[in-house]
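Predicting holo structure, glutamine bound.
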Amino acid sequence: MTVGVLALQGDFREHANVLRTLGADVALVRRPEELHRVDGLVIPGGESSVMDKLSRAYGLADPLKDAIRDGLPVYGTCAGLILLADTVLDGIAGQQSLGGLDIAVRRNAFGAQTASFEADLDIPAVGDTPVHAVFIRAPVVETVGPAATALASVADGRCVAVQQGNLLGTSFHPEITGEYRFHEYFLRTVADVRFRA
Ligand code: GLN
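Done. Tokens:
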């Protein structure tokens, strides 16, 4: 089982480290042929508009969309969540997403004053103890369509984590806090899909 990490930009090294700590074989993905060799993919945090442009420039965007449509398990954090959203609000001019999650996401939704903050969240889908979540210029899931399921929200009720089939997305960054439960959850999905095939 090989898990890819999209390595165009952003904190892909942190994700690769978490996945390796959990025993996964990790492959960095920058080209279409590298994508075809992985059983799942993590899209890291960073800057979604840059990852969008680079994925199109490297000829990866269309193969990625096809892979998502064909059921490739994908976990996106922050910018990665934005790339997985069917609708992006407050994108830069011409910004596109890969899509897959039936959600509308607003970029940089927490505003300048609370651009970065931390919060403890109850997320029953990953366990009983709260998740210490770090938000860095994070997006909010503004609309959750019928195909997607909200997994977590901040104190004011705004949604910050979603799941839909083999896709998982969080506004926050488990990869930088020693929080492994989302990657474990994701690796279980990757294993399920792999062994069903
Ligand atoms: N604000 C960034 C974007 O729009 C996301 C920030 C992050 O990934 N930490 O892509």
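Residues 181-196 form the longest helix (16 residues).
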